Amino acid sequence: MVASMGEILARAKKDKYGVGAFNFTNIEVLETILKTAKRLRSPVIAETSESEMNFLGAEVIAASFNVLAEKLTVPAVLHLDHGKSFSSVEMAVSAGYSSVHIDGSLLTDPENIKITRAVADYAGERGIFVEGEIGRIPGTSTVHKQEGMKINLTDLTDPSAAASFFAATKVNCLAVSIGNLHGVYPGRERLDLNRLGAITEVVRGFLSLHGGSGICEADVKSAIQLGIQKINVNTELRQAFIGGIRSEMAANPEEIRPYEVLPEALERVAKVVEEKIYLFGSDGKY
To answer: Tens digit of pLDDT for each residue in 119-166?
Structure first.
């Protein structure tokens, strides 16, 4: 069923579990994400980055999501991940997304507050859930060969700044930088859980953890207990999908029928989604 982001995160916050926000680049992956959530009786967030939205088309994404989500017995939300501009948010909202992330983290703090508040005002009038971002989360959603990059302390989310940002922008949710990175690196990233605890003390809204593909599993569980409700997963899904395609093509190099190549890739995607749902503790909640 098509659901409200606020409703599913409120329940997650109350019962202390996380909800997976899974990126997709094609409709087959979207359907796999939703089917896996249904099978495990888990709420789910299906999301596209700005690039993914532009590739597929916002209207195609929203229409496909609505058709597929209507068949579910679990709540599902369509979310824009890392919208970088007001126009990208407008595009998503006009197409039918019910939740958006405005990422002004590369701007100065005053500029970030200004664009985030503008989005919150625009979206709030339309009943749209808004996620903002304070602090900078390094990396890109790909597989990196080098060890996890060094994170500057100035990039981490300052608890007092987070409280001020939340109050000034009136967003529903904050994406925070607590040692998490976008992408997958050798080894496992460790989170600054003390910093997260301090943020939770002063920010009463929902909290989002980006870079969920490469974080130590014990830290993920601790972060959920400390106040994270939404956890983004992208790179591991890309790895699984492309890995499955490569494997199938290596085994059957003459195959030209896409529907014969895709099943292995989608099975691998489903496995990642399943593992994350179990890790986040959202299985069996609906």
So the answer is: 999 999 999 999 999 988 765 444 445 554 556 667 899 999 999 999
Q: What residues are annotated to the active site?
A: 81
Distance between CA atoms of 25 and 221, rounded to whole angstroms? Answer: 27
pTM: 0.91
Give start and end residues of each alpha helix (H) in the chain: 5-15, 27-39, 50-56, 58-69, 86-95, 109-124, 159-169, 193-202, 217-226, 235-251, 258-280
Sign of the Cα pseudo-torsion (19, 25, 31, 36, in order)? negative
pLDDT single digits (tens) 61-75: 999 999 999 989 999
Phi and psi at 71, nearest 5°, equal -85, -5
Q: Please name the residues in contact with 261: beta carbons below 8 A apart, sequence gap of 6 or more.
A: 245, 248, 249, 252, 255
Query: For every residue of 230-250, which 3-state class applies, written as one string?
Result: EEEECHHHHHHHHHHHHHHHH
